[in-house]
Every structure is written in C-alpha cells, then in structure tokens.
Write a structure and sequence with these properties.
By secondary structure, this protein is α+β, with helices and mostly antiparallel strands. Helices cover 22% and strands 42% of the residues.
Length: 354
C-alpha cells in the first residue's frame, strides 16, 4: 500500500486554515457573550397606599396675652407704687397713687358749679330763669363732674386687667409726664408700671402662604423650648392674620398656651409643631430614592419584566423612614438594594422583596 504525504507547503496551508477557523469560532463565541446583557442583582419594595399625617414645624416667640404700660393722662408726682416688680395684681387693684393737687382743684370746681346747678334747678321750677340759662349751667355742671371723675381715675391708678408687674418705669417721688418712648421690641414705654398678662401666653409664628390652607382656628399645637428641657406644652391657634407680608409672603398666627405657673416667659424662643389631619398617599422607603447630581430632582427605578425604568418622583413629605410621593401608584415595584448600580433599561435579577 502506497502512503501519500502532502508536500511541506500544503501542510503549512492546512495549518493556517485550521488556525483561522479556530479564530473565527472564538470570535463568534465572544460576540455571542457580548450580546447577553449584564444582569444586576437587586432587592425590591412595593409602593403602598397608606394613611399618613404631616407635621409642620415653625420657630416661634413667647409673647404676653395682654400688655400695657399703666400711667396717668395727667402729669404729676408719683406718691406711691403699691406693687413690686414680678408681683401679680387683679383687675381693678390699686397700683399707684399720684399727687392729689389736680384732684383737689377738680373737687373745688365741681362743688362750686354743683351749687349753681342746684340753685338753677330751683329757679327753673319757679319759672324764674329761662331754659337756655339752665342748660348753660347744666353743661358746666356735667363738664365739672367729668373732670372730677377723670381726676380721681388719674390719681388712683388701677390695673385694667389681671397680670404680672414686669417693671417700674418711674420711681416713687418722681414727676411723671406722658410722652411716647419706644423700647426695642416692646410697646411704648411711657407709664408708671409695665403690666403683662402671661396666663395664657401667646406663641407667635409666621406661616408661609403655601401652608395657610392647612391650618385653622382651634387647631392644636405642640410647643417646645430650649429653656425648659424635656417638657412640652399644648396650645390652640386663636388667630390667623388675614393680611400677608408682601416680603415674606407669610401670615402672623397666634397660639394660646395655658401658663398658670408662669414657666413660659415673654421673649423666649420656641419650636411649634402643628400636626395636620391624616390623609392617604402612596409611600415608599426613603432609601429607595436617588437624587440627580447637581439638581434637586429625585427619582427611583421601577422594575417591570426584570427591567429597570428610571422615573422622576415628587416627594410630598417624609413620614419616619417613608416618603410620600404623588406620581407613583400603589403596587408598583421599586428597586431598593443595588439601585445605585442601575441605569435606565438595566436587566435585573431580583433577590428578594422587602
């Protein structure tokens, strides 16, 4: 039997063809691998429809319920101040006594006019004087009587309401004159004593226009202050200003708080929390949210048919570890763990749902 052998050149050609064939097979295998998309392992969570309650937080200032600088409309010497600074007084209680020169003068004038008036009454009854003459004397009598009453009120200074005497504005023996004198952050300081009603106190806050429609008169509020650690106070909204600031676009709101022990003092700063009525909304864990770099836009990855879809969401509020969003539907699947590895259109493998 004759054995045939290929010439050396033919052997070389066969070897080259074999190498090329193997290379083509290898390339085709690599291309086939590239065609298989990379899959990201993630966990997911389902958006839920739930009740939630939003809490609005504000910075506030403690103010008196009422305040007044008590004085006299008539200048004179202050003879006595009968209340101490920090002392409490009842409505109508005598606070200070002024010199009585004006009262004595008014009393003398009144008595003199009173005699003329009584004499005129007798003469009028006998038709000895005209009605016009009688009316003239009666007008003088009425004016003298009013002057006497004013002198009495401005000699004995009484409290117009119950409260605490915060400060003596003049001292005993000093001459008192009525003139406007504004103190920073306070009412006009002209007067003999400064009187404030601090039970209840008013907490004053400013509410932005976008939140005004969510609050109402009578709504409860929780108040905390750094000056009284570990204690909170409950109050109610008593006033919402109908006028908004053209600069801050906010309205002044007053909250009344019982303060029988006078622990809350005018001028204290505080934090006010208003809990809004419960409402329904779509909620997802805050951890599912991503933020677009350089913007305030927040987004999530929806998972459908093992594919990630980027979706921008609008966060209405936060409730504990959950976020309330208004453009997701309950039941939609959202990426949780592994979300940072995703891009729009990524293929995913779900390892679990939370």
């Amino acid at each position: 039997m004759t054995r045939r052998t290929l010439p050396p050149i033919a052997n070389s050609r066969c070897l080259i063809i074999l190498i090329l064939a193997l290379g083509l097979v290898g390339c085709n295998h690599k291309n086939s691998l590239k065609d298989v998309p990379e899959q990201v392992v993630i966990s997911t969570v389902t958006a839920v429809d739930s009740l939630y309650s939003t809490v609005l937080s504000f910075s506030g200032t403690v103010s008196p319920n009422k305040e007044a600088n008590i004085g006299s409309v008539v200048p004179g010497k202050v003879e006595q101040i009968l209340v101490t600074e920090g002392g409490t007084v009842k409505e109508g209680e005598l606070i200070a006594v002024m010199s009585d020169e004006f009262l004595s003068q008014s009393e003398i004038e009144y008595q003199a006019v009173k005699k003329d008036f009584e004499r005129m009454q007798t003469l009028l009854a006998k038709n000895s004087v005209s009605q016009q003459e009688f009316d003239h004397i009666k007008a003088l009598y009425d004016a003298a009587n009013l002057k006497l009453q004013m002198a009495r009120k401005n000699t004995e200074i009484r409290a117009p309401f119950s409260g605490v005497v915060m400060k003596h504005l003049v001292r005993e023996g000093e001459n008192y004159f009525f003139y406007p004198n504004l103190s920073p952050g306070m009412s006009p300081s002209s007067g003999i004593v400064s009187l404030m009603q601090i039970d209840p106190v008013l907490i004053k806050i400013k509410v932005n226009e976008k939140d005004l429609n969510q609050i109402r008169i009578g709504q409860k509020a929780m108040i905390k202050t750094d000056a009284i650690k570990g204690t909170s106070f409950t109050g109610k909204i008593t006033k919402i200003s109908p006028l908004l600031s053209t600069i801050s676009h906010s309205a002044d709101v007053d909250i009344a708080v019982a303060n029988s022990h006078h622990r809350l003092k005018p001028g204290m700063s505080c934090t006010v929390e208003l809990q809004l009525p419960a409402q329904r909304g779509t909620m997802i864990p805050k951890f599912a949210l991503l933020q677009q770099a350089g913007t305030k836009d927040q987004y999530v990855y929806l998972i459908k048919n093992n594919t990630a879809q980027r979706k921008v969401v609008n966060v209405l509020s936060y409730f504990g570890d959950w976020a309330v969003v208004d453009n997701l539907a309950a039941g939609q699947i959202v990426a949780l763990d592994g979300k940072n590895k995703l891009s729009d259109g990524s293929q995913v493998v779900i390892s679990g749902e939370k």
